[in-house]
What does this fold into?
Amino acid sequence: MAAKQVQWSDIKRTLKGLDRNSLLGLVKDLFGLSEENRTFLSARFVPAGKGGRTPIDGFRERIEKEFFPGPGKFGDGKVAPVRKAVREFWKATADARGTLDLTLHGVEQGTAFTSDFGDTDGPFYAGLCALLDEFDKLLRQRDHRVLYPLFAERLRQLREDADGIGWGYGDFVADIVERLEEDLESTSPLGEPPGG
It folds into this structure.
């Protein structure tokens, strides 16, 4: 007979009975448990950043290390950890602009990875395409369309960098960027047509 899996309701019931010091101790323990927890808690509770760092910085570094862990080092080049970092940032901050930035950064890093280290495999490119598709869907949401001009130049550069990459990846990037240009090019950062 399998043991019953612990549910959030079980944890919540216990948490409600804790005093302030016990809750602070628990959060401190979670903070010390892993780098991911530290990054999440920093993004949620230290928006101004410490030492000039912003909440997004730790997430950007996680993405970069997946592809480029250090000078001359070959990263794992897996897209799943990138998507996980983006989801965690969104959950911690609900910041659409930052989430778009991180998502595009992940695609840019993946593109640079394959350009620097050579062709990989179909699942790698499928993962990058899925990540760019997530960027596209989030940017097209009504309240987020005004953010397009902040990413337009990076998208054009991505299209150029992905040109000629196989597995249909370069074509997919070009298609997404061209559709965004056609649909959102006239959007200003204030949500008004240029000159409006």
About this structure: The chain has a mean pLDDT of 86.
